[in-house]
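Standup notes, structure subgroup. Blocker cleared on the S-adenosylmethionine input:
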Amino acid sequence: MNEAPALPRLREVINLHGLIATRALGQNFLLDEQLLARIAAIPGALADRAVLEIGPGPGGLTRAMLRAGARVTAIEMDRRCLPALAELAEAFPGRLRVIEGDALRIDPAGLIDEPYAILANLPYNVGTALFTRWLSGESWPPRWTSLTLMFQAEVAERIVASPGSDAYGRLAVLAQWRASARIAMKVHRSAFTPPPKVMSAVVHVEPAAMREGVSARTLERLTEAAFGQRRKMLRQSLKALPGALARLEELGIDPARRAETLRVEDYLAIAARMTE
Ligand code: SAM
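Run returned:
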């Protein structure tokens, strides 16, 4: 790899381009380059790997990935960031492509024609919406090789939660039924400029083998019904879902149990029988 080019400090980039953080775009920037390098290292060696970054902002995480040798495609909604990102693209010729737009409206399939890792430090609502979309596709394994995403700590806990805990719910089943999910790093609120109100954590997800015969759509309907009324017994919460209670009986699952007591495998077994 060529020697990394010298770059101005991120605070200088922000001042030079007048990138005052906007709350409407969920802008909380990371400026600590050591921390950014550690986040960029979470998916493993990035040398010559394709990466999709959502929300590069002033480019802190972007430069960390470029320094690690990645080829980055980045989608950014805030036009004010584009000149700063263009400078970064100039410093790493042919290695950074920036697409201006809303990631919720852009299909990455049309942008990158090889497997890619996804990295992002996104506003909470956008991050959860994209996360759900990336994990819900019927076709598996997906085109992405890993997701490395910053979330509010409380959301990160919900993604990796185990049965029986308060945090366990639809997000945990979605993230764990055909992928492995872990909290790779906790990030203190003071690491961001400006600091958000709550703590954050980086979640790392990799696709895993999928149980045959389970439709993502059926599992979604099942978990929606079960956790939609999580304090109720399954007998009540699954009543409106055709065939679900009969499948519980076939599997010997007590309908007096509550949604949070069932393991991911139990949901898969029920969904597989509903899909048949
Ligand atoms: N990656 C930078 C960092 O770590 O310092 C910026 C992170 S900041 C939390 C979120 C970034 O996502 C901002 O640059 C914001 O403009 C961008 N953003 C917000 N919503 C977006 C969307 N729907 N599509 C693309 N980018 C978005």
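Discussed briefly. Residues 124-136 form the longest helix (13 residues).
Next: hand off to the docking folks.
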